[in-house]
Amino acid sequence: MNNNDNHIELRREDVTRYITPLREGGSLPALVEAADGFRYVLKFRGGGHGSKALVSELIGGEVARRAGLRVPELVFLDLDEDFGRTEGDEEIQDLLQASRGLNLGLHFLNGSYSWDVAVNKPDPLEASMTVWVDAFLTNVDRTFRNTNMLLWHGNEMWLIDHGSSLYFHHNWQGWEKAALSPFPYIKDHALLPHASQLEEADRILREKITPEFIDSVTALLPDTWLRQASEEISPEEQRRVYAEFLKTRLQNSQIFVNHAIDARNQLI
Q1: Do residues 99 and 134 lie in contact, with contact meaning Cβ atoms separated by under 8 Å?
Q2: Could you tell me which of 9, 163, 183, 192 has the fewest CB atoms within 10 Å of its CB?
Q3: How far apart (Å, rounded) are the C-alpha atoms in residues 220 and 59?
Q4: What is the pLDDT of residue 84?
Q5: How far apart are CA 187 and CA 216, in angstroms?
Q6: Predicted local confidence at residue 229, as pLDDT
Q7: At what angle do helices 124-137 and 235-251 cross, to 10 degrees?
């Protein structure tokens, strides 16, 4: 997708086979196979944070992709109403039943390894762009303890798991103030020591991540997820708030960029 093309589409596939749970975190993602023959890491809307985690995953993944960072393909995955009835594990069966309908999958990176910050050294601009994206998204979950980065195809760095982004949506009140946050958690970011080109990253990404792109990505959010996320706030209003939150952060990116630069200076 070039910078002038704001149109985004996600493929939609049926899950045909549950392979194994990936017991990481509280949401029990799973490795599954879909009707297209590919394997995916399935994020369940019946998991711990419900559909809000899927909203964060979709927006976060597509923003990172727009930035030029490597993210596995995101695909809408349908779970049939009868899927999982024969599953022997009651916890997994409950999760499958609670997730009937539309979920989200990430293309499985077969043969990938966890990114080791002590061994693998990123390109400074790529590190800076990753830090910028995570500060923009208020992603609290890319730390030294849990990088959510994979090494694949040689030395390629791939970003996974944006489900902890946009944490303002766990309490909709005060989102305007949250949009102007410097994001203090950036001090714990796994790549901050390598992010020596944050001002350059800001210049590049303010051109790539446009208000039109933000409207396009928030338009992808399915009504079913948003109705599950909040019974009081309509899907249309939720999309508007997500878009306005991101546009406000974009317009005021110097707030979180300056804070990240200060946090990095304290580290080095």
Answers
A1: no
A2: 9
A3: 9
A4: 62
A5: 31
A6: 93
A7: 130
Q: What token pair was written down for 59?
A: 């927006």
Output the pLDDT for position 24. Answer: 63
Angle at 127 between CA 207 and CA 206, to 5 degrees: 10
Q: What is the mean pLDDT, run by run of 10 residues, along the chain of 268 residues? A: 68 94 73 96 89 96 98 96 68 84 96 92 97 98 94 94 95 94 97 98 98 97 96 96 98 98 95
Query: CA 185, CA 56: separation in Å to the nearest integer?
Result: 17
Those residues with Cβ within 8 angstroms of residue 43's Cβ, 6 or more apart along the chain or in another chain: 27, 29, 53, 54, 57, 103, 104, 105, 106, 163
Place of tokens 């890491």: 41
- Cα separations in angstroms, 83 against 76, 92, 93: 16, 11, 9
Q: Supply φ then ψ for residue 89, to 5 degrees.
A: -80, 120
Separation of alpha carbons 246 and 256, rounded Å = 13
d(CA 105, CA 76): 6
